[in-house]
Specification:
Elements: H1 6-16, H2 23-31, H3 54-57, E1 62-65, E2 68-71, H4 84-100, E3 119-123, H5 129-137, E4 142-147, E5 161-165, E6 179-185, H6 193-206, E7 207-221, H7 225-242, H8 249-257, E8 262-273, H9 279-295, H10 306-323, E9 326-336, H11 338-350
Parallel strand pairs: 3-4, 3-6, 4-5, 6-7
Antiparallel strand pairs: 1-2, 7-9, 8-9
Length: 351
C-alpha cells in the first residue's frame, strides 16, 4: 500500500510525539465546555437521562438493527449509525481535526472571510461543534449548520449561530451567492460517487466567495497484511452496496477543477500517523479509525459475523500500531468568480 518512508516517519514521530495523552480526558475536557442542557448528544456522563435526542423524537425517521439506530430514508446513505456512540466519535474527530491542522479549520486564502461580517454555511454539521467553535472565535460572523438529522443543540445562547434541516441532494434552501464561505467536512461516508457532483454544484451555487472541504483518504500506507486485507474487503463492500468511495480526494478535485466558476483552487494533503508511534495525533487517529470501522459493521455485515468482524478489527489495528502505518488527510479550497460570472451574463444580454 505504499513504500515505507522511514525518514518521513521519523519526522512525523518527532513532530507529533506528546507523552501522557489520554483520549477520554481530551474528549471530556472538550465536551464539558458545552453544558448538557444545550446538547442533544453525548455519553451518559455528560447528558442527563431526561434529555431529548432527535432520533428519539423522530422515530419515523429511524430504523434499528441490533442495538444501533440508522436514518430511515431509502435514498439516503446510512453506512454509519445515528446514535450517541457514533455522534460522540464525530465529536472526538473534531478534536483531532483541530489539532491536526494546528488549530486552524481553513486555508490562509480563506482567512480573509473571517475578518469581516461573513456568512458561513457548515454542510453536514452533525452536532454543530465546528460552527459553535468558530462562532465563539469569530463573533462578527454568522454561522449556519445544515444537516439531514437535527443532532445539533436544542438551545442556543450564541446569537451568531443557527441550524437548519435538509438534504443537500434535494437542494439547499438558499439563494445563489448567499454565503461568503461554504464549509464541508468528513462527508465521504454520506455521498456516493455520483452524489459528489450534485452536492458540490449546490455548494458552489450558494457560495459567493469561498468553499472549503476537509476529509481523508482511507489508504493505510504501510498498514500491514491484516489491516490491508480488512481495508480492501470493507471498501469493496461499501462500493458494491452503496457506491461509496472512501478515498474521495480525486473525485472532489476533479469536480472542482472542471467547474468554470471556480479559480484559485488550493489542495493540501498531509500524512497522519496511525498509532502510538505518532504520539498524541497518532494515538487519537487510531482510536477514531478503529471506532469508525466497528461502527460500519451493519453496512458490511455480509462479510463476517459481528463477533468475527470485531475480532478482525482489533487484530488489524493492533497490527497498524505495530507497523507504524499512516494515512492521508486533505483540505481543498476554491474561490468562486462571482464578478466574472455576472459580467459574462451582462455581455450575453447586450449581444
Amino acid at each position: 500500500m505504499g513504500a515505507t518512508n522511514s525518514t518521513s516517519k521519523r519526522r512525523l514521530s518527532k513532530r507529533f510525539h506528546n507523552n501522557n495523552f489520554l483520549i477520554n480526558d481530551s474528549y471530556d475536557r472538550f465536551s464539558n465546555n458545552i453544558p448538557s442542557s444545550k446538547r442533544r448528544i453525548s455519553s451518559e456522563s455528560t447528558i442527563s437521562s431526561h434529555s431529548t435526542n432527535s432520533f428519539d423524537r423522530c422515530t419515523e425517521l429511524i430504523k434499528t438493527f441490533g442495538s444501533r439506530k440508522y436514518f430511515n430514508r431509502d435514498h439516503v446513505k446510512d453506512i454509519f449509525p445515528t446514535d450517541n456512540d457514533e455522534l460522540k466519535r464525530l465529536e472526538l474527530t473534531h478534536i483531532w481535526n483541530k489539532e491536526l491542522w494546528e488549530g486552524q479549520s481553513f486555508f490562509l486564502p480563506v482567512d480573509e472571510v473571517f475578518s469581516r461580517n461573513a456568512k458561513v454555511l457548515d454542510i453536514g454539521c452533525g452536532t454543530g461543534i465546528w460552527s459553535l467553535d468558530m462562532a465563539r472565535k469569530y463573533p462578527n460572523c454568522h454561522f449556519t449548520g445544515f444537516d439531514i438529522v437535527d443532532n445539533f443543540p436544542l438551545e442556543l445562547k450564541q446569537s451568531n449561530v443557527d441550524f437548519a434541516l435538509g438534504n443537500i441532494l434535494e437542494g439547499l434552501p438558499y439563494d445563489d451567492n448567499t454565503f461568503d464561505l461554504v464549509f464541508m467536512r468528513n462527508m465521504k461516508g454520506c455521498l456516493s460517487q455520483k452524489d459528489y457532483n450534485k452536492c458540490l454544484q449546490e455548494i458552489i451555487r450558494v457560495s459567493s466567495r469561498w468553499i472549503l472541504i476537509l476529509d481523508s483518504d482511507i489508504i493505510l500506507i504501510d498498514g500491514g497484511p491484516l489491516a490491508n486485507q480488512l481495508r480492501e474487503e470493507v471498501l469493496d463492500e461499501l462500493m458494491k452496496n452503496y457506491d461509496i468511495n472512501m478515498m474521495p480526494s480525486s473525485i472532489i478535485r476533479k469536480c472542482l477543477e472542471d467547474n468554470n466558476q471556480l479559480s484559485d483552487i488550493h489542495f493540501e494533503d498531509k500524512q497522519c500517523p496511525i498509532g502510538e508511534w505518532g504520539g498524541r495525533l497518532g494515538t487519537l487517529y487510531l482510536e477514531i479509525l478503529k471506532w469508525a470501522t466497528k461502527n460500519l459493521y451493519h453496512s458490511v455485515s455480509t462479510l463476517y459475523s459481528e463477533e468475527e468482524y470485531n475480532l478482525k478489527v482489533d487484530e488489524a489495528f493492533e497490527e497498524l500500531n505495530h507497523y507504524n502505518g499512516y494515512d492521508m488527510v486533505f483540505r481543498i479550497c476554491a474561490k468562486k468568480n462571482v464578478e466574472k460570472r455576472k459580467s459574462l451574463k451582462k455581455i450575453v444580454r447586450n449581444t
